[in-house]
């Protein structure tokens, strides 16, 4: 009997399978109590070993007390880890020996690493901000420079008084246009417009009024050339206009309309009205292969237009004289 | 509501404001046995006169009053649950009430579970298969009630006297 009881208790302690209660000891109440206690202990330990920390410990005594202490420690540790995960790095463990030291070291290192990362992030944010400010300043400076550059370019290319191209810029653009016309095979016309008796206006009304007249003439030329001719100021009271891609008939129509508009639009001043006329010399060019590639050609076209202008003045002013650049043939328009 | 004239209505002043002056030689602290002597003799008389249930209720109510006073004096600066938890842990240890460890702080459901090791009321008592920390239940309730403005139910779910080596309390809203 005693042997079977001891053997049963031994099995309860060591055997993986739960042993049957020995029938011969059925009336032994103390053995029943020990059996039940050990079965509960096995179940509780199994629950803890498989991670069920909430398993209720319903037995008493020193072993149960130790189990409950272990359970409480593990549950509190779980809570502490949850607090660390939520960002509370002040959590420290002051129980469970070696584990406590390892846990505290880990939390400290995590805290330090995160603090360091946060500092680096702050530094990076500050650097990024500083960089953004610097870029903005540089962009602002660049915008100012570009604006200035555009202003200088405009000033370098345009006549300060009238706002049209100056002679050099007109020359460059006109040369390029002649080359294009030669490649595409379309005609070009170049007109020189001279204000009749402009010196008298300067002498009688003053140079400032003369400047106003020049600006007024410029405005009239621009409004007459809506289709897109190139306008430049050639000299004191002389303007040049390049009209690409138009046949001679259309060109003459446009340029003569310009002449009429000047004559029909007197310039009103505070002291009176100034009536003006212009003489125009027009050189019509049919581009020929190889002829339009140099400056000599351009100068020769200017010469042709100049000759036509001279002829217009000889013809009594306020008229248009056309010369074919090749034929150098007079064709006076505007004189009745 | 009791309308009898009061002699012992609690506030911190009634226990003496300058303890250093009161006990210059003996100092602030006494043996925990003295604390328990007072508590258990008082329990004895209350139980003899009113029965166990009423004695427990009186103790729980006194604990709640103490918990509220404790909160006002020691936890008033707590701004959130984590800071309240830290303060409770720190002050319980400093004052020798016990070592508080939390197992659950669910602010969504307002459920809290904590253990008190080396509890001033019960650690080391004989195993009686009973839960006896009713004063602690009230004390913890007083703290949580004061902090949240809600009416908590605090129950001791495990006790030194029921074979544990720590006392476990669960605070919930009804």
TrEMBL record, chain A:
Protein's UniProt name: diguanylate cyclase
Segments forming domain HAMP: 68-115
EC number: 2.7.7.65
Alphabetized CDD domains for the sequence: GGDEF, HAMP
UniProt superkingdom: Bacteria
GO cellular component terms attached to this protein's record: plasma membrane
Domain GGDEF, first and last residues per copy: 186-325
A single GO BP: negative regulation of bacterial-type flagellum-dependent cell motility
GO molecular-function term, one example from the UniProt record: diguanylate cyclase activity
InterPro entries in alphabetical order: Diguanylate_Cyclase, GGDEF_dom, HAMP_dom, Nucleotide_cyclase, Rev_trsase/Diguanyl_cyclase
Keyword list, A-Z: Coiled coil
Gene3D superfamilies: 3.30.70.270
NCBIfam families to which the protein is assigned, alphabetical: GGDEF
Ranges in a coiled coil: 107-148
From TrEMBL, chain B:
A Pfam cross-reference name: V4R
Organism: Desulfobulbus oligotrophicus
Source organism, top-level taxon: Bacteria
Residue ranges of domain 4-vinyl reductase 4VR in the record: 111-173
Protein name per UniProt: 4-vinyl reductase
InterPro entries xrefs: NO_sig/Golgi_transp_ligand-bd, V4R
């Amino acid at each position: 009997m005693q042997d079977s009881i001891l053997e049963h208790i031994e099995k309860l302690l060591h055997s993986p399978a739960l042993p049957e209660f020995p029938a011969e000891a059925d009336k032994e109440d103390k053995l029943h109590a020990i059996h039940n206690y050990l079965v509960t202990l096995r179940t509780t330990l199994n629950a803890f070993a498989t991670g069920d920390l909430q398993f209720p410990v319903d037995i008493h005594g020193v072993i149960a007390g130790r189990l409950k202490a272990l359970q409480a420690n593990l549950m509190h540790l779980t809570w502490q880890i949850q607090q660390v995960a939520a960002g509370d790095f002040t959590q420290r463990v002051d129980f469970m020996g070696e584990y406590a030291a390892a846990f505290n070291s880990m939390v400290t290192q995590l805290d330090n690493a995160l603090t360091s990362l946060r500092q680096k992030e702050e530094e990076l944010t500050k650097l990024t901000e500083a960089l953004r400010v610097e870029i903005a300043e540089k962009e602002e400076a660049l915008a100012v420079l570009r604006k200035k550059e555009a202003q200088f370019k405009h000033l370098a290319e345009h006549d300060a008084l009238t706002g049209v191209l100056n002679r050099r810029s007109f020359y460059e653009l006109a040369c390029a246009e002649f080359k294009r016309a030669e490649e595409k095979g379309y005609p070009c016309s170049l007109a020189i417009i001279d204000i009749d008796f402009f010196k008298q206006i300067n002498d009688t009304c003053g140079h400032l009024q003369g400047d106003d007249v020049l600006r007024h003439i410029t405005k009239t030329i621009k409004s007459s050339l809506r289709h897109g001719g190139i306008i430049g100021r050639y000299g004191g009271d002389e303007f040049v206009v390049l009209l690409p891609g138009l046949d001679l008939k259309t060109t003459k129509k446009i340029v003569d309309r310009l002449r009429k508009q000047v004559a029909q639009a007197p310039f009103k001043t505070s002291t009176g009205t100034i009536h003006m006329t212009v003489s125009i010399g027009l050189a019509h060019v049919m581009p020929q292969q190889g002829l339009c590639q140099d400056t000599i050609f351009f100068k020769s076209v200017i010469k042709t237009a100049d000759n036509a202008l001279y002829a217009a003045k000889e013809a009594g002013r306020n008229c248009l004289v056309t010369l074919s650049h090749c034929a150098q043939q007079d064709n006076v328009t505007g004189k009745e | 509501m009791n309308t009898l004239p009061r002699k012992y209505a609690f506030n911190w002043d009634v226990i003496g404001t300058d303890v250093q002056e009161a006990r210059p030689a003996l100092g602030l602290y006494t043996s925990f046995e003295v604390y328990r002597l007072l508590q258990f003799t008082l329990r004895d008389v209350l139980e003899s006169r009113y029965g166990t249930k009423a004695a427990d209720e009186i103790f729980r109510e006194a604990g709640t009053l103490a918990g509220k006073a404790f909160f006002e004096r020691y936890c008033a600066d707590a701004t959130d649950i984590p800071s309240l938890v830290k303060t409770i842990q720190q002050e319980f240890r400093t004052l020798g009430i016990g070592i508080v460890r939390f197992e659950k702080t669910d602010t969504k459901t307002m459920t809290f579970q904590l253990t008190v090791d080396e509890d001033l009321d019960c650690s080391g008592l004989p195993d009686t298969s009973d839960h006896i920390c009713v004063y602690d239940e009230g004390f913890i309730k007083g703290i949580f009630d004061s902090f949240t403005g809600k009416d908590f139910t605090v129950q001791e779910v495990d006790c030194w006297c029921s074979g544990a080596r720590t006392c476990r309390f669960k605070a919930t809203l009804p």
